[in-house]
Give the backbone structure.
Amino acid sequence: MESKPDPSPSADVPTRAAHPPTAPLGPQSLPDGRELVLRVMPLPADVNANGDIFGGWIMAQVDLAGAVLPSRIARGRIATVAVNEFVFKQPVSLGDLLSFYAKVVRVGTTSITVHVEVYAERNPANLQVVKVTEASLTYVAIDREGRPRALPT
Ligand SMILES: CC(C)(COP(=O)(O)OP(=O)(O)OC[C@H]1O[C@@H](n2cnc3c(N)ncnc32)[C@H](O)[C@@H]1OP(=O)(O)O)[C@@H](O)C(=O)NCCC(=O)NCCS
């Protein structure tokens, strides 16, 4: 039997009040308080043998999305030094529109750590928003020689 979706938004995923969606959202809404850094729809070439979207493709998109805010802060070249955590919470399907939201959680001397959340919008006739992936990544500002450099103040 299919479980009934919980209509109440969870504590860490506030509903979007400032910009009402064009259609009613499902059990989860897109988050406020985080920056939308990437929106993309996977293609048939990104499907794995199970018919879902290949995890490696999602990881690549998360790496690109996670780099947006650190690039702004570093005002120059950065490199991904670590993927601290990566959780595939729900499978991604063809036709899902993925939105990547990022928040800077730590700024060090040369490094910036970012938390990324990925939401899928699916089934436009009865729109549902599902958190599919969550990750934490660290980027390092680098100089021309690829060595760590201090972040600008
Ligand atoms: C990124 C790189 C230049 C860092 O060089 P490094 O000699 O390891 O640097 P350091 O040990 O001085 O650490 C630099 C910063 O990274 C942080 N860091 C290093 N390893 C880390 C890890 N495993 N997890 C989290 N942070 C880490 C350090 O804490 C430090 O942060 P801080 O200055 O804010 O305190 C080097 O590791 C590198 O070139 N890696 C390959 C990058 C790459 O090819 N990425 C994939 C494509 S972009």
Remarks:
- The beta strands are 35-40, 78-88, 97-107, 111-122, 128-141.
- Residues 36 and 101 are 5 Å apart (CA to CA).
- Confidence is low (pLDDT under 50) at residues 1-21.
